Amino acid sequence: MASDTSSLEEYARRRDFGGTPEPRGEAPGRHAGELAFVIQKHDASHLHYDFRLELDGVLKSWAVPKGPCLDPSVKRLAIEVEDHPLEYAGFEGHIPEGHYGAGDVIVWDRGRWVPLGDPRQGLENGHLKFRLEGGKLHGSWNLIRTRMAGRKPQWFLVKGRDDEARDFPRHDILAEAPQSVLSGRTLPGEAAPPPKRAMPAKAPHKVAGAMPEHISPELATLLDAPPEGDWRYELKLDGYRILARVADGKVRLQTRNGHDWSERLPDICAGLRALPLRSAWLDGEILVVDEEGRPDFQRLQNAFDVGASDEVRYTLFDLLWLDGEDLRRQPVEKRRAALAALLQGNASDRLRYSEDFTDDPRSILDSACRLGLEGLIGKRAGSAYVERRSTDWIKLKCKRRQEFVIVGMTPPKGSRQHFGALLLGLHDDEGELRYAGKVGTGFDAATLKRVHASLRPLARKTCPLAAPPRGQAYRDVTWLRPEQLCEVAFAEITREGLVRQAVFHGLRSDKPAKAIVQERASPAAGVAGKAAKPAAKSPRKAARDDAKVAGVAITHPERVIDAASGLRKLDLARYYERAAECILPWLDDRPVSLLRAPDGVGGEVFFQRHASRNAMPGVEQLDPRLDPGHAPLLRIATARALAGAAQMGVVELHTWNARVDDLEHPDRFVLDLDPDPSLPWARMIEATRLTLAVLDELGLACFLKTSGGKGMHVLVPLERRHGWDEVKDFAHAITCHLARQMPDRFSAVAGPKNRVGRIFVDYLRNSRGASTVCAWSVRAREGLPVSVPVAERELDSLKGANAWTLGTIDERLALRGKDDPWAGWGDVRQRLTRKMWEQLGRSADDDGG
């Protein structure tokens, strides 16, 4: 399907442009930026869907008679048709009778597509893999050419197995969302979405009108500018998202993680109970405002810390269910009108309605930014409520913008030329030039070349900063004389003085470099940005303000270690101090391997298994004879040692499967369920249950924890009777048994290629010296998730392996001693028997080969 200058001849030959409103598209267009896709719903001689992908200046096109389906097990026929011009992606209208394709056309979905591999090669080979990021369709997809005979090439359009997949016919995206994503209108005869279909006869226990027990929130997609179309805008609130379920006078306040906060917010519950309703699901945000009436996230956190819930307000913006009626398929305007009417008689000062605006979104955003607010949330008129991230809901954030001094360039990587990122500097209150982060986006090829030519003459051998940044990432930097300025847009400057989400906007030469300091907005200054904060201390002064945690001085406590959440080095150290009672029982009598991330998440990381010259406060060195030929192994046995590790840049704590008093006989083995990242979370839950079933058949008690990444960890305690090789071989036998019994679900071979569409049960962590992340350890990943013990009964409500993070873990910690899912570990007495080996189809005397 390669395109050339004549690729639109067939399109033009079939049409009389004197009578059809379709675009002429006389020549292929030019690609600029991201690749577009569009799906047009076409009521011609037969209703069908036209699926189009931008490539080589045209829209490659297929007619899909039954339309796309979100179920990976359903293959939808896609008949290849002629290329269409790029302008066709925005076409909606009526093609008159007597013309080719006569009938009505709407844009059912559109967005961008991302090829997975070389798209031209994929089309030539008959298997095109790609991702869609549209208003309705998301995630991985496939076009697979068939061998069916026909006048035109025939393909299958198939959804990939990922978190966006849904079962059919339970979820029918065509029936649920029939309207245009451009105009909101439907085809003639489809004036409104069809009523929700009754459940099939095979499930009579489902009662029509029964209110769901759980609803997941619709999430907004971040955009950098307001889109076209009919949108309603609300202020973006800086708080916690809460869905409220009200039934028979009982209120549950559900967080995004599925936790119930009703006991923490009794006044809000009372206000909801007083509303004139029998049952409802409501969506909103809890927040605390400052003296100027602006939401203040720090005050919200402080309110919970000191138990001052009377300051918390619940601002409501959606109504999903009311007195037996499911409103989720109703247009957002109708849902919000019903919510406004419901709140008219509200007497509680704890409940508020989120007003919307229909003015020019750019002026609304500008006003919000000038007031020190976070930004806007936009909702597409006519859109239904979906329980996932959607482009029907968007967020526009206030961006700040100012000049920075360019102090260095990092080397380019991959196909990029000239440089990777510019290192930035700002002068502090004392006139010292301090590191302010880096900017690596906002450049095209021409800009990279031009900027590099301007900066190259400024190269110098030494760093011009008063306190040079440390770490592997800065070893190959080309340092520059601090003379050239650039303008950068960014979301914020962290407390440590580093820019977040920076975008390059150009070089500047209209100010002296010495004059460049951090610009700080105040309520009267009219500068777009976040709410005004007290002037920050100079980095030099801040560096002196070390904090003490468990008796350990934490230097640079305000250093942000995860830009996505803004969490700091001090937050990590304080967590490990709070969690010591939970984590030390699984840590203090085992050798520990430490994952250090001195530059935070996204920077260089390395493992430390043995003692080094730089001792960590409180961390013990074990007898060198335990691991001959190496420096001593390490042990963390106190809260002070936990804080000392955090002080030295340690984020993750990994432990051996044996205790220090007998390192040759493990007291447990671990099965690490490692999935193909494209698999939906439901497949992980299924795999966990299947693994538990096998262990149950073997008569082995086991315990579960989230990995804090993508998978689950299953830990099996043992009496210390077996050597390392025997335990590892037994774990391998379980892996092979699962893969043999269910080859479509499990793989016994490591490596990404061997687990496509499957889950690798990793048994390799059971060798001498291998380790697994400890229960309650933080992970060095975006958001700083935590590996958390869970009970089997919690699996159905578990939202992911990263369900808890450093920012949300305290609620789980508070349950310690009340309902510990690992409380029975110490009572387990079990060993590996010949019968177990035989059940796995192996002999206890096998060598594992």
Automatic annotation (TrEMBL):
Q: Where is the ATP-dependent DNA ligase family profile domain?
A: 311-397
State which residue ranges cross the membrane.
none
UniProt key word Hydrolase: yes
Q: Which InterPro entries match?
A: DNA_ligase_ATP-dep_C (IPR012309), DNA_ligase_ATP-dep_cent (IPR012310), LigD_ligase_dom (IPR014146), LigD_PE_domain (IPR014144), LigD_pol_dom (IPR014145), NA-bd_OB-fold (IPR012340), NHEJ_ligase_prk (IPR014143), NHEJ_LigD (IPR052171)
CDD domains in alphabetical order:
Adenylation_DNA_ligase_LigD_LigC (cd07906), OBF_DNA_ligase_LigD (cd07971), PaeLigD_Pol_like (cd04862)
**Highest taxon of the lineage:** Bacteria
Q: What is its EC number?
A: 6.5.1.1
Q: Which cofactor does it need?
A: Mn(2+)
Region (Disordered) residue ranges read: 1-29
Query: GO biological process annotations for this chain's record?
Result: DNA recombination; DNA repair
**Reactions performed catalytically:** ATP + (deoxyribonucleotide)n-3'-hydroxyl + 5'-phospho-(deoxyribonucleotide)m = (deoxyribonucleotide)n+m + AMP + diphosphate
Q: What are the UniProt keywords, alphabetically? A: ATP-binding, DNA damage, DNA recombination, DNA repair, DNA-binding, DNA-directed DNA polymerase, Exonuclease, Hydrolase, Ligase, Manganese, Metal-binding, Multifunctional enzyme, Nuclease, Nucleotide-binding, Nucleotidyltransferase, Transferase
Q: List, as start-end ranges, the regions of compositional bias called Basic and acidic residues.
A: 10-29
Gene Ontology MF annotations: ATP binding; DNA binding; DNA ligase (ATP) activity; DNA-directed DNA polymerase activity; exonuclease activity; metal ion binding
> What is the protein's name according to its record?
DNA ligase (ATP)
Q: List the taxonomic lineage.
A: Bacteria, Pseudomonadati, Pseudomonadota, Gammaproteobacteria, Pseudomonadales
